[in-house]
Amino acid sequence: KTRHVCNYGYGTTTSQEHGLVKGKSYTFKIAWTDTNRGPLGPDYDWQLLIDDTAVPGVRLDRYGSGSTYVIEDPGNLLTFLYNGDDINMAKGKTGKIHVAGIGFRTNGVFRTGNLAVAKWEDAFKEDNNGISFDDPDFINSDVDRFQIFLNDARRTEETLEATVTQAGSIADSRQVTLYRQPDGTYLSTNLLIVASAEDRDGTALTDLKAVPDINLRMFQTALDDTLTVSYSHGGGTLTSTATVGVDVKTLEVDVAVMRVNGKACAGWPQIETDIRETSECLAPANIRVVFNLAPSMYFDPPPSIAANPANWATCAWHSTGAHQMTQETRDVIEGSILDLGNDRLRVIYVPKGVKDADGFGIAGISFASWAFPLDTDTNYLDTCFVTADVNEHYVSPHEVTHLLGVGHEFASWNLMEPWMIFRNGISGTKRLTQEQVNKMRNTGFERNKLK
Question: How many CB atoms lie within 10 A of CB 319?
Fold first, then answer.
């Protein structure tokens, strides 16, 4: 309540600030607790301003938050001064302040800051019939799901429409239906942010057809993109913006490419795909990947493999049972001219045909401290090889994740599946669990830093 007491003359108008809650409606009125009992008789003059103005309608929050509210004044109470009398007075007259609120809700909590890229950790199951979704509407059980939330006490319709606009790497805008809840608020269905076009379009599993409106419920974005939800009401527009990514860290990766007979063993299409897939796969871990490409990234094979650059062993078994780099591997890493003393990881493209310790051809290999513990390899760690001209997907993010401290995971849709399946699509080998995310962000990456 705002009180004004005037014992002598007209006095000075008083004011007071009131914090109003988004989504609620408030009634304002003028009530006299006493009046002039002097020789002039009763006095029913009044002045009433809200945020220093007597104009009803849509107002913008005075503190610049972008929120709006609507003032309804059917009794004409708002005025700089009204000389009322005992016939025309404010008694019984009321007005309304409607404060609508809109935003994003995750796991039942109203959120105004950031939204996560979905990991799809528990989305799949595998049996004799192959891979399918564990829940016919898996979005409803995904831990990273979100909803659009609206609270407007004036509205009674069963459904309302809001607009969600993406800005950043992908520009998109679509209408989202909000459904009235028993408490009078409005909610959308559960929605997901995804990092890849395959996830957004739902082009893989036939089970996706059982998920209602799946293409309308997937938003393909990248870290640092924004989603803005807007809703028009009473001549004004409510908006709320959230940034994609929660506590985002940056990982820098230097790239080098070996030349064979003067020609790069890996072409730009493969490098570009690897960059995109690594960024997409690590986005659910809230890791922003920056690849450093330079004209000097191309290098010739060192003398130790110059005669046959596509047929050499990358590692061997040490007598202790540990893996150990071969001298050829150390020569290649040194010959790449990449800085071995910085806080970045290194991806080096080598010709197809190079071998592991057991003589098998590889799609990629990571030289991480937890896998190569010998002192002879210390100066060459935080490096991975990716084989050129290999058709598998997700080799680069798989190897980079090894460098971040994560081992293999026996699940055919997991990024760290050890059997080099590397399938593309929704059920492809590209998912991460929360445990893996925690490891790479908190306990992995022993020598380098996520910034």
Answer: 6
Q: Which amino acid is at 173?
A: S
**DSSP code of residue 138:** G
Which backbone phi and psi does 376 adopt, to 5 degrees?
-65, -20
* Cα–Cα dist 401/288, whole Å: 13
Q: At which residue do the structure tokens 């009125």 appear?
A: 29
Specify the DSSP class assigned to residue 382. Answer: S
Position 314, amino acid: T
How far is residue 137's CA from residue 142's CA, in Å, rounded to a whole number?
Answer: 10
Type of residue numbered 184? G
Handedness of CA 195, 201, 207, 210 (dihedral sign): positive
User: Rounded CA gap, 386 and 350, in Å?
Assistant: 6
Structure tokens at 277: 């897939």
pLDDT tens string, the chain, 451 residues long: the values are: 566 655 555 556 677 888 887 767 788 888 775 566 566 666 777 788 888 888 887 676 766 555 667 788 888 898 887 877 777 778 888 998 877 788 888 876 666 568 999 998 888 887 777 777 777 788 888 889 999 988 887 788 999 999 999 999 888 899 999 999 887 889 999 999 999 888 877 655 555 556 777 778 889 999 999 999 999 876 578 888 999 999 899 999 999 999 999 999 999 999 999 999 999 999 999 999 999 998 889 999 999 999 999 999 999 999 888 899 999 999 999 999 777 777 889 999 999 999 999 999 899 999 998 899 999 999 999 999 999 987 778 999 999 999 999 999 988 889 998 875 566 777 778 899 999 999 888 865 544 556 6
Decide: 4 and 13 in contact? Cβ < 8 Å.
yes
The residue written with tokens 């990449």 in the block is 338
- For residue 327, report the phi and psi dihedrals to the nearest 5 degrees: -65, -35
Q: Are 360 and 314 in contact (CB under 8 A)?
A: no
**Do residues 164 and 176 make contact, with C-beta atoms less than 8 angstroms apart?**
yes
- Secondary structure of 400-440 in HEC code, one letter for each residue: HHHHCCCCCCCCCCECCCCCCCCCCCCCCCCECCHHHHHHH
> Cα 245–247–253 angle (5° rounding)?
80
SS3 state of residue 199: helix
- pTM of the full predicted structure? 0.79
Mapping DSSP onto H, E and C, the string for 300-357 reads CCCHHHCCCCCCCECEEECCCCCEEECHHHHHHHHHCCCCCCCCCEEEEEECCCCECC
**H-helix or E-strand spanning residue 217:** helix 214-217
Residues 36 and 5: their CA atoms lie apart, in Å, by 11
